[in-house]
Amino acid sequence: MADALTGNVMRNQLKFCKVMKLKIISLLSLAFLHTVQAEVSFPRANATDIALFPQQNEVRNRMDLSGVWKFKTDPENAGEEERWFDGLRDSRSIAVPGCWNEQFTDIRNYLGVSWYETDTYVPESWQGERVFIRVGSANYAARLWINGAPLGCHEGGHIPFAFEITSFVRWGQDNRIAIQVENLLKPDRVPTGNVPGGQFNSFPSANFDFFPYAGLNRAVWLYTLPRERSIKDITVRTNFEGETGIVEVEVEKEGTASRGRLVLSGEGRQIELPIQFEGDRAKEVIRIPNVRRWCPQDPYLYSLSVFLGSEEKTLDHYFLNVGVRTISVTSRQILLNGEPVFLRGFGKHIDFPIFGRATANPVMIKDFELMKWTGANSFRTSHYPYDEEFMDLADREGFLVIDETPSVGLYFHGDEDALEARQKMSKQYIRELIARDKNHPSVIMWCVANEPFPKDIKMSAVGGGEVDPKPIQCLEELTGLVRSLDSTRLVTLVGVMSGPLEWLASCDVVCINRYWGWYTNTGQLENGVKILEMELDGLHRKLNKPVMLTEFGADTMSGFHGVDSEMYTEEFQVDFIRSYLNVAESKDFVVGTHVWNFADFRTGQGLIRFMGMNLKGVFTRDREPKMAAHFLRSRWLEGSDDSSAHEHK
Ligand code: GCB
Fold it and tell me: Mutate which of 596, 613, 616, 618 to test ligand 1's pocket (most atoms within 8 Å of Cβ)?
């Protein structure tokens, strides 16, 4: 029986791969036409400059530059030579944050060079401070000018970058900020695009399954730091000794200050401790008797203020929320505060009509509301880091987050230089993401890649066979880098269906995406679920680690019903999700189930994406529930398996 199933699996996989390889359109030449190269005059952003989000307090200032900016596309890439950074002519208006593909009617698929410009007044009162610019996300590559002078560049979307602009500022006057952004899809970028023989036959030719929304998708800030002495970074690590919470605070500073203090408050108590620097670092431990532990049922946050200087004279001050919790694994469980926890929730996207992938705070609030409404306690930031506000909210709402880098669509064959460039980018993303998110109690696991793709997927369908050591080495480098930067959290990468299990060996939790009964064994859910069961047992037997289903789901047209549970009907989606949950929950080594996806989302155009949409959401793109959302609520929140009773609530 197992052999017959395996044979069937192999045949179906071959068919799947052939379809995927059909009609590969090579747009490489177009991509390279517009290659923008960094020069000496454009220093690269430094990952550590994004460690602390801008704050307004008695010593720091910040200014949100969100609003309507000037915008102009530059398909010939002539702007730099023509000095567009001195002032855009014949520009149009664009909202920042916002992606250009959704705001205009004529550049939906345009990913080439574009220019943004705004003028901003910098008050005289800021003179004497250090002034920085922080760009929340420029997808994909950006170069900045201030008052016509080149400032710096950054590569990689979905993650902030910052530059000091003090020496360029005109105090008490308007200052012109020009940002050039381009989002060309290339095999040496991460995520990858225009990959010969790539995974997705779609237009635009992304090697990933979501629309490559381009532009300034998150807010741009100006902010100040005290000139002579400032706090550069704070790292908080938490633990317990019995009922006492241990909060280790490491502070990194710049400049001459030699001391400061920590003030932690919560539960009506305040604990104050002096800190003394050795070199640029100070480390102190705060002990909280009868500590309140952060967890989904009680996401309690203590307030921590870090001061530089003396009580009489504050030189710098930064505030953080602190959730006291631990996270660890055994061979069958994830332990939160030493207790087993099961992750129930979703793989998500940041995606909404007109906003595209840009910050949309009401949508963010709604998403948390709806996730709580289903009874979810967890989500993955598939397939890129989300906005800082999103992570703050996860802390406050008690969600357990798998925080993912943008390394989706990785592959390890072909051009060596491209592989090296991708590996470098994946490492850069890890450094940036950990620098940005390391103090969020909600983040329990870093994910270094989604579905890295083997050259010959059929070879490794059931494990065994010859395994190429190169990908394993690349992936181990990534998980190793995470461990060297943060030993207090778990690390994983998410395995593709039929990917070699050897690739998953360096993970703390074996995370897999599975679509048996959808992409293979199409429509035959019963067979699909049998394979899933065999596979889960095999994975745990061989790797002896907890396993998590990070994706499973079925495209479903909202309002589409059938007497028979057929593909695309709401009934099929419920059956699919129910069958997978039943199998997963019957295994004591399965530690979580994330349904793919929380909501329908925009993709490129392609044969398997009707109307350029992935329809696997349990909510529609505008957040209306499908039957599956009611089903999950019954199951997760009310412990019942009856979706029909809740259909029309
Ligand atoms: C996957 C990918 C995800 C896709 C999904 C699908 O395995 O990780 O990005 O959207 O499958 O629906 O095909």
Answer: 596
